[in-house]
TrEMBL record:
Boundaries of every PPIase cyclophilin-type domain copy: 21-193
Organism: Ancylomarina subtilis
Enzyme class: isomerase
Protein name: Peptidyl-prolyl cis-trans isomerase
Alphabetical UniProt keywords: Isomerase, Rotamase, Signal
EC id: 5.2.1.8
Purpose: PPIases accelerate the folding of proteins. It catalyzes the cis-trans isomerization of proline imidic peptide bonds in oligopeptides.
Superkingdom field: Bacteria
PROSITE patterns (UniProt xref): CSA_PPIASE_2
Stretches that traverse the bilayer: none
Length: 193
């Protein structure tokens, strides 16, 4: 074996061994599946909460119900593109535990294309509702202007397979950002620890 081939193989092995291993969650819908890597080390509070919800089958009757794209945000100066999912009904969500808000300037996870983050009202009110970014959404980061409090949203993972499904969901028929036909989440499960 030539020395440079051996060096190349060694470098490739070191790179592969040094890449962090993250838990992977699969969300199965009628439109296809989405795989997410969950950043436990970077966003420990949010990631562990989401994984606990998956483990406890909290999302058994979850769905994708809200889609935001450039054409359905009349009157908004700062536009975003996301799909939102979770338990949908406030009467259910309001009775579940909430978590401490992890800002993006603490975690380093920015709202880039495919990033999953927690939906919330006030900081510290996130529970079960989540969204996936379609394209980069810097106005959702800490200091961003989409939310008047400037705290941003708590990002905790990223789509590694299935962005075509995310985009398909985003293009479904809606009225005032709410899907006319919600997309049921058939299953959401941990497929790799």
């Amino acid at each position: 074996m030539k020395p440079y081939t051996l060096l190349f193989l060694l470098c490739a092995c070191l790179f592969a061994c040094s890449k962090p291993q993250y838990p992977i969650v699969e969300i199965e819908t009628a439109l296809g599946s989405i795989e997410l890597e969950i950043y436990e080390n970077e966003a420990p509070v949010t990631a562990k909460h989401f994984l606990a919800n998956v483990d406890q089958n909290i999302f058994a009757k979850a769905c994708f119900y809200r889609v935001v794209h450039l054409d359905n945000q009349e009157g908004r100066d700062i536009k975003i593109e996301v799909i939102q999912g979770g338990l949908f009904h406030d009467s259910i969500v309001d009775h579940l535990p909430t978590i401490q808000h992890e800002r993006t300037d603490q975690t380093g996870i920015l709202h880039k294309d495919g990033v999953i983050s927690m939906a919330r009202n006030q900081p510290g009110s996130a529970s079960t509702e989540f969204f996936i970014c379609v394209g980069d959404q810097p106005s959702l980061d800490a200091g961003g202007l989409r939310n008047p409090d400037g705290e941003g949203f708590a990002a905790f993972g990223k789509v590694i397979r299935g962005m075509d499904v995310v985009r398909k969901i985003q293009m479904q028929k809606e009225k005032d950002q709410m899907l006319l036909k919600r997309i049921p989440i058939l299953s959401i499960r941990l497929i790799k620890e």
